[in-house]
Specification:
The complex is a heterodimer of chains A (254) and B (396).
Chain A (H helix, E strand, L loop, with lengths): L2 E13 L2 E14 L3 E5 L6 H9 L4 E10 L2 E2 L5 H7 L1 E4 L6 E5 H13 L5 H14 L10 E2 L5 H15 L3 E5 L7 H16 L4 E6 L12 E6 L2 E6 L2 H9 L2 H4 L6
Chain B lengths: L13 E2 L2 E3 L5 H4 L45 E6 L5 E5 L15 H9 L3 E6 L9 E20 L4 E22 L4 E8 L6 E10 L4 E8 L4 E10 L5 E10 L4 E10 L5 E10 L5 E10 L7 E10 L5 E10 L6 E10 L2 H8 L5 H20 L2 H19 L1
Parallel strand pairs in B: 1-17, 2-17, 5-6, 6-7, 7-8, 7-9, 8-10, 9-11, 10-12, 11-13, 12-14, 13-15, 14-16, 15-17, 16-18
Antiparallel strand pairs in B: 3-6, 4-5
Classes of the chains: A alpha/beta (254), B alpha/beta (396).
Chain lengths: 254, 396
């Protein structure tokens, strides 16, 4: 069973000619089949955690370990991490002009699966997945994220999640900027992947709204660069009622 | 009109543009001498002239100052033409030479003053070719001066592929003369060896209701400087000028376009795209469009895009539009030079795509719309293979 283990992770970022520590000792274990919600106020380092796990060059790991089934994730390049089974659904997916969605998806699936998917079954697979995400077939001919609305970008991220079938999926504020309909469609996509039992999900969010659609097994409160409290789904209810104030005003994390 | 850049211009690159409404053309006046067939009418450039300021004169191997002398066989020219086409080798005094345009700088005038034989390819009126005419220009290592004419009679249709390979120091003029209603597509490939120097002026004279399409593909050479120029002989003409270049470390590739809207109701569309990589890769793009007072109903657009893949490369991109009449359909230009975006690279790699393949995807995507314009399959394939090779070399 695939397991992502994060131990005492410290990460810095260069900003304004200064080095700033964003992650200050993150500990977290995510197993295949589990769903963990990471909730926290703005600026707590949630997205930094997501991008650090994916290997974004902007972030420097200064301490700690990250392993996937015992393999050292931090020693892998960005593409190696993806091929090892890590997937990051991005909060702000970037435009790639001149590269069509269909070409991108196939290149990506070929890389992750280690061989080119058979054309006939692949076309069907993409078509059906797009239909379930309420994406028009013409989408495949558009350039990656170019001119996509916020909702289209997120659906495109979940389309990739469904096609690439990672071991560990990190969803970075996938709910932000979505209206209720789009949130439901996107959540259904995530749930289809979860129901296979083959993926461990790390759901990073600022709001509790998405947790009505995607039920987490574990909820972690993230503040000032580390996990400050962990619990079951009831912790989300507490946050819903009380907000993050107890954590940012120097309650637990102080 | 002048369009916002989609990403910051890399350090050392420039992109400027202007649209002038002028009574007197600055396109003409900022040249250091009026056009002429005689090299003696042009002073030897010193490098600060407007038309020479981007060009490293010391790398022209004497083409600009009279010291380059044709010796032995500089280039070998082989013309392969389908049936119905006339191919002739003629002397300097042939009346069909120089009809499409006059040399606008000293090197073009030098070429016109120094060539000994010219090649004239004629497609008779109403002849429609199904196979391209192929002109292979192979450098044999020496200096050479050339003149080529391609003339299409009224309503003739042809595709011409001019393929430059090998090593040479070549100055040349090419005339494309399109009769009324004729359709000509020319693909000029500069696939020279690393040391080659190639300076050429391409003059197209577009007849009434005729269509001219030029695709310029520049990869090789130490220094390549081309002047694709279009003039209209009558109303209703159309010109599409496409260009692709891949400028590597140390290469200087310069494309200086001029479309002279000299007749009413003509169209022109210019789209050039270049990718650059490596130390001292230098691409220059000048896009001059002049809409003369008599050219009512003109519709023109010109665009240049550059993708800088590594540090150390430099782009100078200067679109320039001059309008002498307001009675036009449309006129605009755009120029942008952007870095290969690290966020794009991260996004693609985060989907398991290895770095070199991610770069290839982006660069192929960047060129895709122009590659489709070539319309000659073996050239399209060769071009894509070339792009792959160039990228492999940079990744290795």
């Amino acid at each position: 069973m695939a397991t992502l283990e994060i131990r005492d992770l410290h990460v810095t970022v260069e900003a304004d000619n200064a080095t700033k520590e964003i992650l200050k000792g993150v500990d977290l274990t995510v197993k295949q089949g589990e769903t963990h919600a990471i909730m926290g106020p703005n600026g707590s380092g949630k997205s930094t955690l997501a991008y650090s796990l994916a290997g974004h060059p902007k972030y420097t790991v200064t301490g700690g370990t990250v392993t996937l089934d015992g393999e050292d994730v931090l020693a892998m390049s960005v593409d190696e991490r993806a091929r090892a089974g890590l997937f990051l659904a991005m909060q702000y997916p970037v435009e790639v002009p001149g590269v069509s969605v269909s070409n991108f998806l196939r290149t990506s699936a070929t890389a992750v699966r280690g061989e080119a998917p058979k054309l006939r079954t692949w076309v069907k697979e993409v078509k059906e997945t797009m239909e379930r995400l309420h994406m028009d077939p013409s989408f495949a001919e558009r350039n990656v994220n170019e001119g996509f609305s916020g909702g289209e970008k997120k659906r495109h991220e979940i389309l990739q999640l469904e096609l690439l079938k990672p071991k560990i999926a990190i969803l970075d504020e996938t709910d932000s900027g979505l209206d209720v309909d789009a949130l439901r469609i996107v959540s259904e996509g995530v749930n289809r992947v979860r129901e296979t039992g083959q993926v461990g999900t790390l759901l990073i969010t600022h709001y509790t709204r998405i947790l009505r659609y995607i039920k987490p097994d574990h909820v972690h409160v993230f503040a000032d660069g580390r996990v400050v409290e962990s619990g079951g789904p009831e912790l989300a209810d507490k946050l819903e009622n009380e907000g993050y104030e107890a954590y940012v005003k120097g309650g637990v994390s102080a | 009109m002048a369009e916002a850049q989609n990403s910051p211009t890399p350090v050392g690159s420039t992109t400027a543009g202007q649209i002038a409404v002028a009574a007197e053309s600055t396109v003409a006046t900022r040249m250091s001498a009026p056009p002429s067939f005689d090299v003696a009418d042009f002073p030897v450039p010193h490098g600060r002239e407007e038309e020479w300021r981007f060009t490293p004169l010391e790398r022209l191997r004497g083409l600009h100052d009279g010291t380059a002398v044709a010796a032995g066989q500089g280039v070998k020219v082989v013309v392969e033409a389908p049936e119905g086409v006339t191919v002739e080798t003629v002397g300097r005094d042939d009346a069909r030479l120089g009809k499409a345009g006059t040399p606008v700088d000293r090197v073009a005038a030098q070429a016109y003053s120094a060539f000994e034989q010219a090649s004239v390819v004629t497609v008779p009126k109403e002849t429609q070719l199904t196979e391209p005419i192929r002109i292979a220009v192979h450098g044999e290592g020496g200096a050479a001066f050339g003149h080529q004419v391609v003339e299409l009679g009224a309503f003739a249709e042809a595709v011409v592929v001019i393929d430059h390979t090998g090593d040479a120091v070549l100055a040349a003029n090419i005339d494309y003369v399109l009769g009324d209603g004729a359709k000509l597509t020319v693909v000029s490939v500069q696939d020279w060896d690393d040391r080659a120097v190639h300076v050429a002026q391409h003059n197209a004279l577009v007849g009434r209701d005729a269509s001219f399409k030029s695709v310029v593909v520049t990869f090789g050479g130490d220094l390549v400087r081309l002047h694709p120029r279009v003039t209209y002989a009558g109303p209703g003409g159309e010109a599409e000028l496409y260009g692709l270049y891949f400028t590597d470390a140390g290469q200087h590739q310069e494309h200086r376009l001029f479309v002279d809207h000299s007749a009413p109701h003509c169209k022109s569309n210019v789209a050039y795209k270049g990718a650059l990589q490596g130390e001292d890769a230098h691409a220059v793009w000048i896009g001059d469009v002049l809409i003369e007072a008599r050219a009512e109903g003109t519709d023109t657009y010109e665009m240049n895009r550059n993708l800088v893949l590594t540090d150390g490369a430099r782009v100078d991109s200067v679109p320039n539009l001059e309008i002498e009449t307001g009675e036009i359909v449309g006129a605009g230009h755009a120029s942008a030079t952007g870095r290969f975006d690290d966020e794009q690279l991260f996004y693609l790699m985060a989907r398991g795509i290895p770095e070199n393949e991610a770069r290839r995807l982006v660069v192929r995507g960047f060129f895709a719309e122009l590659v489709q314009q070539i319309g000659v399959q073996d050239i399209e394939e060769r071009l894509l293979t070339k792009i792959e090779q160039e990228l492999e070399a940079s990744v290795a």
